[in-house]
From TrEMBL:
Divalent metal cations. Prefers magnesium or manganese. It comes from Manihot esculenta (Cassava). This is Malic enzyme. A divalent metal cation binds at E329, D330, D353. CDD domains: NAD_bind_1_malic_enz. Pfam families: malic (PF00390), Malic_M (PF03949). The active site is at Y186 (proton donor), K257 (proton acceptor). PANTHER family: MALIC ENZYME-RELATED, NADP-DEPENDENT MALIC ENZYME 4, CHLOROPLASTIC. GO terms for cellular component: chloroplast. (S)-malate binds at R239, N494, N538.
Length: 638
């Protein structure tokens, strides 16, 4: 039961983070927060056998650092991260979680990690086997179990089950084994998971906002139990990776991205909210699938679609404030650019497909210059694919060249050429082009094929963002190698099946001379006795640290210079040892340190541009970023 010493809830951390009341009920709660007495009863005992536990919120509020900083910039209302790891914390729920309910709460459950003292204090005796094991041993056991599965999707499902039962163990396992587990919780496995999401769907993760909720989106947002949200990843499922329209089943993408925000960027899990906006699907296979979990109708477009997105963005800002980061994910081209342009001036928004991909690719190119020499302006770039990713990367490259050469972007764009499904984008096609392709329509005779474009333009860098597998044919790659000593080939489309070429093909067809990176991982390749380790131009290098930098500085708008700052920070993390192996990206094993550097660079740029609101600026932004990161280590309970 709960006993109130005085009025509480509303604007306190307790109301924000754990109130399950409806909006109507919340409106009935008085608003003068002072202190809270919580009485935790064992449901199997009489009232006189209860254990009284008190906590005064004022004690928590006394620490300024608690209100302003920790764990990804979210208020640490529970005092968990401001305490040192040897101090005790209270496992708050609506009441103090005890007994069977504690084992069912993924945030606080430790499984066999509960000590004997904790088992006595929280009525866990008999609910667990007698053994007490360390978190490290639990990780070892789970990795042993996961490695027994033959199929990646089985491993994915095992990880999702773990996330829903023991949150800290999930993140501990993911952080400690990031290079092995990243392809499981995200690309390429998440693509298959989305395709089969209806069949494997169990416990819901995130919010589903459909056309049925039009006019009630604010109410739906308030149904989410956590209130101190700092990052939303949202998709409408129309362009999931290179797999097309997966409708409501695209939820696997926001869930996966936010897992990486926590594991790689250190943003508190309770501050992350995955959302799928369901406006229908044009995928006939899904519409006829009895296990499909979304609206069974064709996609809404035009005004109906725009009104729903406008209501959503307005509700998000109203409910969570000016500094909520909204990351658009896997929207179709025609909507992705429009949404970024429309809300980029009024909200803190970020499109990972356009901006995140651009930043990570630019970082790889800057690093690759150490291997091939010259500056960006000395190179010619040819893209296969002129959608969100292709044009986003091209624009950021042009912007960086513009800053380096003091030439206008209109001039630096002339070093960059794009090929779409109809051939080379040239000025004679300008009238029929979509608006985001028009800046890349240069004077040149029309060319129909990629091979013709390669032979005519003679690029030093070939970048694939087409979403179509095996389009970097042997002829194309051999042509690149014929006029480049070290051709740079980036096959970025996801998942692995959609990659423009494999690592083995790139190294074999260039006789081991290619500088290669891909969107999805490939194993090392041996060519003529030399082992080549392909790089992975994975957005996970950028967006977790980028988001952390925005959050910890209280940034209110994203600026292109922040993307350049993130690229520079990532490129600076590539060591000579990495270069010696032909790598243009650092290993993921150091990803948290990399994310801290990126966050610091992004935050510094935000302060420089006057877009940061958390004042004063910390003296050491790298250390501050590291201090803000969520720790998955078990805590001791009172």
């Amino acid at each position: 039961m709960i006993s109130l010493k005085s009025n509480f809830l509303s604007n306190t951390g307790i109301s924000g983070s754990c109130s399950p009341f409806s909006a109507k009920q919340r409106g009935l709660v008085p608003k003068a927060p002072t202190s809270l007495k919580i009485v935790a009863l064992n449901p199997n005992r009489e009232a006189n056998g209860s254990v009284l536990m008190e906590n005064t919120l004022q004690e928590i509020r006394d620490g300024a650092a608690v209100l302003n900083t920790v764990a990804g910039g979210v208020r640490d209302v529970y005092g968990e991260d401001t305490a040192t790891e040897d101090q005790f914390v209270t496992p708050w729920s609506l009441s103090v979680a005890s007994g069977y309910s504690l084992l069912r709460d993924p945030r606080y459950n430790k499984g066999l990690g509960f000590s004997d003292k904790e088992r006595d204090a929280h009525y866990l005796r008999g609910l667990l086997p007698p053994a007490v094991v360390s978190q490290e041993l639990q990780v070892k056991k789970m990795m042993h179990i996961i490695r027994q599965y033959q199929l990646p999707l089985q491993k994915y499902m095992a990880m999702m089950d773990l996330q829903e039962s023991n949150e800290k163990l999930f993140y501990k396992l993911l952080i400690d084994n990031v290079e092995e587990m990243l392809p499981i919780v995200y690309t390429p496995t998440v693509g298959e998971a989305c395709q089969k999401y209806g069949s494997i769907f169990g416990r819901p993760q995130g919010l589903y906002i459909s056309l049925k909720e039009k006019g009630r989106i604010l109410e739906v947002l308030r149904n989410w139990p956590e209130k101190d949200i700092q990052v939303i990843v949202v998709t409408d499922g129309e362009r999931i990776l290179g797999l097309g329209d997966l409708g409501c089943q695209g939820m696997g993408i926001p869930v996966g991205k936010l897992s990486l925000y926590t594991a790689l960027g250190g943003v508190r899990p309770s501050a992350c909210l995955p959302i799928t906006i369901d406006v229908g699907t044009n995928n006939e296979k899904l519409l006829n699938d009895e296990f499909y979990i979304g609206l069974r109708q064709r996609r809404a477009t035009g005004q109906e679609y725009s009104e729903l997105l406008y209501e959503f963005m307005s509700a998000v800002k109203q409910n969570y404030g000016e500094r909520i980061l909204v990351q658009f994910e896997d929207f179709a081209n025609h909507n992705a650019f429009d949404l970024l342009a429309k809300y980029g001036t009024t909200h803190l928004v970020f499109n990972d497909d356009i901006q995140g991909t651009a930043s990570v690719v630019l970082a790889g190119l800057v690093a690759a210059l150490k291997l091939v020499g010259g500056t960006l302006a000395d190179h010619r770039f040819l893209f296969l694919g002129a959608g969100e990713a292709g044009t986003g990367i091209a624009e950021l490259i042009a912007l960086e060249m513009s800053k380096q050469t003091n030439k206008p972007a209109e001039e630096t764009r002339k070093n960059i050429w794009l090929v779409d499904s109809k051939g080379l984008i040239v000025s004679s096609r300008k009238e029929s082009l979509q608006h985001f392709k028009k800046p890349w329509a240069h004077e040149h005779e029309p060319l129909k094929t990629l091979l013709d474009a390669v032979n005519d333009i003679k690029p030093t860098v070939l970048i694939g963002t087409s979403g179509v597998g095996r389009t970097f044919t042997k002829e194309v790659v051999e042509a690149m190698a014929s006029f480049n000593e070290r051709p740079i080939i980036l096959a970025l489309s996801n998942p692995t099946s959609q990659s423009e070429c494999t690592a083995e093909e790139a190294y074999t067809w260039t006789k081991g001379r290619a500088i290669f990176a891909s969107g999805s991982p490939f194993a090392p390749v041996e060519y003529e006795g030399e082992v080549h380790a392909p790089g992975q131009a994975n957005n996970a290098y950028i967006f977790p640290g980028f988001g952390l930098g925005l959050i910890m500085s209280g940034t209110i708008r994203v600026h292109d210079d922040m993307l350049l700052a993130a690229s520079q920070a990532l490129a600076a993390q590539v060591t000579q040892e990495n270069f010696d192996k032909g790598l243009i990206y650092p290993p993921f094993s150091n990803i948290r340190k990399i994310s801290a550097q990126i966050a610091a660079n992004v935050a510094a740029k935000a302060y420089e541009l006057g877009l940061a609101t958390r004042l004063p600026q910390p003296k050491d932004l790298v250390k501050y970023a590291e201090s803000c990161m969520y720790s998955p280590a078990y805590r001791n309970y009172r």
